[in-house]
Write the structure tokens for this entry.
Amino acid sequence: MYDRHVWEATPGKTLLHKTDVRTKMVLLILLAAMVLIVDSPRSLFLLFCLALGLHVVARSSPGRWRILMVFILFGIWGSMTSQALFYTREPRTIIACLLAPTTPGIGALTGGVYIYREGLEYGAVQALRSGTMLTLGLLINWTSDPRQLLRSLLSWKLPYELGFMLITGLRFLPVIFQETGVVLTAQRLRGFNPFRALSPQHLIQTAFQTLFPILARTLRRAATLASSVESRGFGRETPQVALPVWSHQERFFCHTMLLAVCGLVLLKIMDALQFNGLYYVPSCRGLYDLMKVWL
Amino acid sequence: MQKIIMTGITLLFICTLGLLAAHIFGMNNHVSFSNKQSGTQTGAYGKVMETVLGQIEVYNYQRMGFNKGFICFSPDSRFLAVGSETGEVLLYTTKGSLVWRKNMGLGKLTALEFSSDGQSVLVGETSQQGWLFSLRVKDGSEQWRQASVRELGVNIKEKTYPGIVAIRTDAAGMIYAVAQRYIKHADGHNEYVGRIYKFTTDGKRVESFPGDHNLDSWVSWISVAAAGDKAAFATANFDVAKYKYDQNIYCLDGNLNTVLWSNYIDVVSPYQNVTMRTSTDITPDGRYITGVASDGRCFLFDSEQGQEVWRRSISQPQKIGGVYINATGNYSQLLGEYAVFTTGNTYNRANWQLPTPVEHPNSNSLFVFDLQGKLMNNYKFGGMIEQIAASNKLAALAIGRNVRSKDPSVHGLYIVTIPETQLVDYAATSGPCVAVAISADGQYAAGIEAPLQLDDGQVIGEYKLTLLAKTQR
């Protein structure tokens, strides 16, 4: 996990590697919009599976799959746990009681701590949203040359400084993980065992002892990078290498996806108008029925 | 070590996604029992199938209304149609196999019936258009649909929608549907809008009652003679107000053109009006009409002139400790030579949410009278009779919450003989049984159970369908 090569983009011959970076970026934005528009757990799950399927197509390495699975698992279980405990909407069904309201002191203060079924479901649905976006973001990062990414952003009139910051951030993510691995290795060689005691005080102390060296090394790298780009005339107008031609087929695909998302937005607005009793189109009952299940 | 960790993470990931998929796509527990394993008290019936219908909101004892379901057997006893609170219509064979399932989308299911030829499932819903659908038994595809919104109107902002709340058929296959819209105004008064329709088997509307205006009373039930020459309904208005259709029982001709007769029923203390929510029933030959009022009185009328043949009080309001308690009259059915009535839970007449000193002695009971008015038998169940369904000599009852004793051990599907009220069999359910059906030949019975939250917060039961079949002996 701390190997930077797992995090960095690598060349490949799959369809996703060959696809223009602009197409991938458009897909990312549109699919992110889709997961925000759609509320149906079925549709969200299918979108999530689609995102995972794209990783299969991209032939992501086992190391990358491990990173993906760890992040997604943390997301799903963390979201479900927090929502299950702190769900406030109605209706809510208690499926387990962790702390009875009759417990002296804390019971009366909290009113009891319960696990709610609807909270678990809601947390899972929210986790699918964030999981889909995370999966797609990592896919783009792992299958796209950062230079191509930067050129694409610049061709879309993003200010050079912002584009540079974004791409640098992406490039430095693997570096940070590598730095973390180096710091932890150095500490272990000195006999440091972070989980020797599980007391909160010890864990906080451990966290500071690990984070400070990482921060220090990262800041040192940032300073070096800043000197380097400044000496190369950062910010001055420089001729850019031309981007490869964006193929007609991919552009058409992006436009179709855009239309599809716009359509989804319109349907969502229709559904919201119907739900709030503002406007209902009787002839579109079939559409409303589909929306209830899939949207 | 790395491989073990990787394997562990992968397995956890796959299991998590699998559980999510199972929950989202409703791959519920579907347990089929063989005929040899009874699962009932006496073994006269055996569980053929038990399946979870989905996740629904869980209610407690304090709620007046409760979760529902709609089930009915086809006239040839080959199929079972189920309408669930989750908005789905499902068709099963009586062997327990699912033939098709259909999500009805936006509308809320409010009525379910088979056509008299058993080829269609008629589904009523409450929605912006208040549709009545006819679905083919073969594959669930839609044959036709008819809306009630044109007559009843709709207010989408206030969400007062029209709906088809009762569906009946006659021997010729004609379809009778009761449409209703209920409006609660800001000043507290209630407005009712209703219409009764008659359709042919291919969905053509031939008549409606009234013809050119709406009923202004609560009408949510209708009974039709097998010959289709008479239809009867009762009213159940909450308010004591002036209504155009203010009589308690109406009998119409089969064409819904003429009111053959209508009757007032006198009010009894401490009630201010007479409500008959789930009345009337009519004998197949159309000779007699029965009804039961919420004040606990039951009636038998001659259908020709509307003369009252007899009346009985099966749960008279009682004043105990300064508090009037009553057990509402619920259902009335005519089975051959017998009239069957049921009562519900005990309530404080002043306010149903207030406690009562005792349980009404005739609460949650079944009463069987002959057509001369003689009480043949009665049977007291421990919980609310949520629904009763009858075949020739058997009655199946869905027993739900007893809001006074709060005893969940009474919940279940009961099958008793008529008129003897002998218990044939009893399938216990954890949660209250909220719907029941029995096939015309008495060979099959089915019930829907709903989850219930107890006072300590624990949830018992599931939203589940159980299908029973008579065991071969």
